[in-house]
Amino acid sequence: MRSHYCGDIEENLIGKEVRLCGWVHRVRDLGGIIFFDLRDRAGLVQVVIDPENKPLAEIGRNLHNEYVLDITGIVRARPEGIVNLEMKTGKVEVLASKIDIINRAEALPFQINEKQNVSDEMRLRYRYLDLRRPEIMQNFILRAKIVQEIHRFLSGQGFIEVETPILTKSTPEGARDYLVPSRVHKGQFYALPQSPQIFKQLLMVAGFDRYYQIARCFRDEDLRADRQPEFTQLDVEMSFATARDIQDVHENLMRHIFRELLQVELPNPFPRLTYAEAMSRYGSDKPDLRFGCEFIEVKDLFKDNALVAFAEAAASTEKRIVALCVPGGSTLSRKNIDAYVELVGKQGLKGLGFLKVNDKAIGLAGLQSSLLKFMTEDLAQKILERTKAQNGDLLFFAAGDSNIVNVAMGVLRLKIAEDLNLIDATKWSPLWVVDFPLFGEVEGGFTSMHHPFTAPIDEDPERLEQAPGEALAQAYDLVLNGTELGGGSIRICNEKLQSAVFKILGMSTETAYAQFGHLLNAFKYGYPRHGGIAFGLDRIAMLMVGADSLRDVIAFPKTQSAQCPLTDAPSLVSAEQCKELGISVIPQDKK
Fold this sequence. Notes:
alpha+beta, CATH 2.40.50.140, Gyrase A, domain 2, 3 domains, eight-stranded mixed beta sheet, five-stranded mixed β-barrel, globular
């Protein structure tokens, strides 16, 4: 039908006839001359109706927002004085010669052409309208381009795209599975994949060498702003590769995507921190490096201090004392500080000391602190030297169990940066976090920090079983601006080591073969060394478009309660369907 997209009408088309299709974005009647903006996915163009053209003028007077039109007209330059340089098409307009109304629109539940405070529930119930908004539409255009660049880059690097099953076997990978009952095998269930993990490892056994897939994954878990029950990930596996090989390929991929789509040059190489360093310096395994405020260890300065909590922490190998220097933080009120004390208290930290640097040149008299009565001139001077604090800065102090101090101060660091606008929103700060613990301790045993197929740095099974809590993993996460984009690892490549890991996790040989026999059997037939990585495509898109939520880059997302207001899913099914599947449903307690 159409000859051009609305957003592509530019000066090179002046004098030519075009045919456009789209939605009425806004109508303006200026004393007989009618203007309206026509919108499609490419953008807007201004259409003009000559008042001398009576039939068209009559149509124009009855147009409303979101009517769907098919128009024909001549492109002309806008008159001097009404050029709009903020629009791509702002130097031209289309003088309409024919207008066909394809469909009319009733009054909308919310407006497309203006910003409104619309609830998420309303936006998702009428998602097809929400997606018409130009800023949301552009999110999905950029997302599509990200996928195109991924295919282009990885194909050029010799990777083979392979699709893995959606209906698969339920296995314990940390989150709960979505289960699918089988009609043919009554009483038995498939599971929707949490990831293609097992299959991509088996593809390496098969000799594909370099695999990738834009994979749909499912996890039945609580939702957050950066999480959805179904999501898309870039899934990659490489044979005969070291961790650094895998990281280098994907650094280059990220640099390529940002260069091509945002004209941004990411650093080369990306910085690297061990998990221990990240927690010690930033209190997070996904630190935001767009601002400073690193933790400063001051434990040695508080030995024999009169403040009991600090003296006890200084004497313990399991505890630490850190300072956090906030540039310009002395402007914070006592009310602000009390709110921060409450914040860290929720993380288990029992107290938070502070020190305002008003005039460091005059010693204690120039300081304001909840700890001042426990400080000497010498201690205050050493603290100022260690922290490099300047006049107008604020120091926070935390003492206690190392893990609690790290996490609590990490939360505080981010909150203060947000409150005081310390984050450079124009900056991109990627980071590799490496050398994670292999296991996390839980009541009665251990759990995998990543997944049970991750290889330890020390691959000796006997030493691993002797000290599993000390083992480090050949695992790595890519972090960007404080958001984990994804992670991966070198995989276990021999049966003895894999069996030792299963044993540490409390899994019997029988259970291991029942759950993962298809993988364990593959060890017998020539198993290559390999590793891989997976990135949250939705998270990458969210950061690149500057959105605050995954819902702005997923076409039809779920709510925080994992529901779809548009389709009212999940929903009940009939008794006949349940009978055919061989399942029964426990009635929900109406209370």
